[in-house]
Structures are given as structure tokens and as C-alpha cells.
Amino acid sequence: MPKLKKNSxxxxxxxxxxxETEFYNIENLARKDDSLKGFMDVFAFHRTTQSNVANQKYIxxxxxxxxxxxxMFLVDDDANVSITKDGxxxxxxxxxxxxxxNKKRG
Length: 106
Hints:
The protein is of the alpha+beta class. It has one domain (20-100). It is 38% helix and 9% strand. The chain has three helices and four strands; from the N terminus they run αααββββ. It has a two-stranded antiparallel sheet. A hairpin with a 4-residue loop joins β2 (81-83) and β3 (88-90). The longest helix is centred in the middle third of the chain and has 15 residues, at 52-66.
């Protein structure tokens, strides 16, 4: 894995899955280094707001709102959910047939 320079502005994003033990170990290491406080604050926020209980509520809502019998749009039971203060983005699947590849919108 490439190392990032300290105070790097290289954008890094994505989802990371950790066990409770892995999170606990990182949290304990970060407590020993004041420079990691901001990182751990963000981590702790996501740990509490991105809980499975909250995620499931948004997943169920997305299924109710957007499900179609022809399965043109689907949401997995374990979909990624990104919660914000006003709602959440829920990962879904949209079907696109080969005959739709060259169609223009409208």
C-alpha cells in the first residue's frame, strides 16, 4: 500500500469494513497520538450513525419507495448506506438492457 505524505491533499474515499476488534485496536492506538484526534472523531461519528439499525431503516424505505415488479430497480439487504444529517444515500441496482445503450434521454 502506498504511503501518503503527512498533510497530503491526496483525495481518499470509499467504504471500509472493520470488525469491532479492529476498530477498538485503531481507537486505542489513536488515543496515544494527539494528531489523530480529528481522524478518530470522524471515525466515531460514522461508527455510531452508520449503525446497522439505522442502515436497515433507510434500506427498507428505499425498497418501499423504489421497488418495481419488473425489477428495474433493486436494493440489496446489505446495501451500502451513507447517512447525512438530512437523510441517506442508499446503494441500489438499476437494470439497463442492451437495447438501451444507445438511446438518448427523453
